Inverse folding.
């Protein structure tokens, strides 16, 4: 058995804390330091560590990081104001829908124009559309951490972003399934639709069950067993969401927290989970994103497209989601905040791109631009969020 993972974890925890302190001195959210620490440790700079399936320690680190993002989203669910979310449900739906359509169109057109693809050619059309599909993805783990630091996670804008992100995840799965089914006949859009409907029914039933069990949960408040049970429930929801329904595990973890957000045990569970998440799992998760970054071997044309795709990725979510919020009654500043909060693509875009590679919809050379989009949007989101939430003098 290799014990290298102890050394790696120690290096990650120290480096993320140091970088976090440095960026805070510069007036930036601490999560930016975590990401930079990962980039410095990874193959892009010092090559201290790498994450791959062939590397046992790297695989362990990736699993630990997955736990980190699950805990983070579970805490986000616990911190969500259900009454505020109900009031902003329509805004979340509209924001998510427009926030999927606009990046889909802009990404498709950008790829086709840059590489001279013809929409009259079935293969080239699918390749162009799939780049748009990659840009529809949203990963709010960075946004959640930043909003929590800024104290805006449970407000009107924060709950709209969280609600829109969950709906965005489901819409993204539907779009991905439709596009890949045109190339991979083993994918059935009808079956995916049935799974999503079944998932919605299961979530509603579990909400009802948690409400009925509230008297029992209240009696067990502040007992260790209730904390363990809540954590097990989070893991259970993450597993069945991904394994049985094809919904992201972090969405399941978020719903688990959401179901307990109105319970009397919420504060106790949040304190217990939040402590271990903040000190250990979250730094490992954010550092792992930076460690995965590799930018070598890109040609001039691919670098050019990477820049174009990054600009399109930023603008499409800000315009699409911001417009969705605006037509739902948000003012210009709040609409901009919602748009910026939906910018980060994170690991979701990489997962979508990998699915496209498996069915032959994306060229291997296009992975580097997607990685650059993930890096830039991940690094810029907390910076831009702090800027748009800055109090006016």
């Amino acid at each position: 058995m290799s014990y290298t993972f102890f050394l790696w974890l120690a290096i990650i925890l120290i480096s993320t804390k140091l970088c976090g302190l440095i960026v805070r001195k510069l007036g930036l959210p601490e999560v930016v330091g975590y990401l930079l620490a990962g980039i410095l440790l990874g193959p892009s700079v010092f090559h201290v560590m790498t994450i791959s399936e062939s590397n046992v320690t790297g695989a362990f680190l990736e699993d630990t990081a997955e736990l980190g993002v699950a805990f983070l989203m579970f805490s986000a669910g616990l911190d969500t104001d259900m009454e505020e979310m109900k009031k902003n449900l329509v805004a979340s739906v509209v924001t998510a829908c427009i926030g999927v359509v606009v990046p889909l169109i802009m990404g498709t057109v950008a790829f086709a124009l840059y590489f001279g693809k013809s929409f009259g050619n079935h293969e080239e059309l699918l390749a162009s559309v799939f780049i748009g599909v990659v840009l529809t993805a949203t990963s709010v783990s960075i946004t959640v951490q930043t909003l929590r630091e800024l104290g805006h996670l449970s407000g009107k804008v924060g709950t709209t972003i969280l609600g829109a992100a969950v709906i965005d995840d489901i819409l993204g799965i539907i779009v991905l399934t439709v596009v890949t089914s045109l190339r991979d006949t083993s994918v059935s859009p009808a079956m995916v639709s049935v799974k999503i409907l079944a998932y919605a029914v299961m979530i509603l039933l579990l909400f009802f069950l948690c409400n009925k069990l509230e008297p029992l949960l209240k009696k067990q408040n502040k007992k260790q067993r209730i904390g363990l049970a809540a954590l097990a429930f989070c893991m259970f929801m993450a597993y069945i969401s991904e394994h049985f329904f094809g919904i992201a595990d972090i969405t399941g973890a978020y719903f688990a927290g959401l179901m307990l957000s109105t319970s009397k045990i919420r504060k106790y569970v949040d304190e217990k989970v939040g402590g271990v998440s903040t000190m250990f799992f979250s730094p490992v998760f954010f550092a792992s994103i930076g460690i995965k970054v590799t930018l070598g071997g890109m040609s001039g044309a691919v670098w050019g497209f990477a820049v174009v795709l990054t600009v399109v990725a930023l603008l499409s979510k800000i315009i699409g989601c911001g417009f969705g919020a605006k037509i739902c009654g948000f003012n210009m500043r709040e609409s901009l905040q919602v748009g910026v909060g939906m910018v980060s693509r994170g690991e979701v875009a990489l997962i979508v791109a990998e699915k496209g590679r498996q069915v032959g919809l994306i060229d291997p050379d296009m992975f580097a631009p997607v990685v650059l989009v993930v890096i830039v949007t991940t690094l810029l989101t907390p910076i831009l969020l702090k800027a748009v939430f800055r109090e006016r003098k």
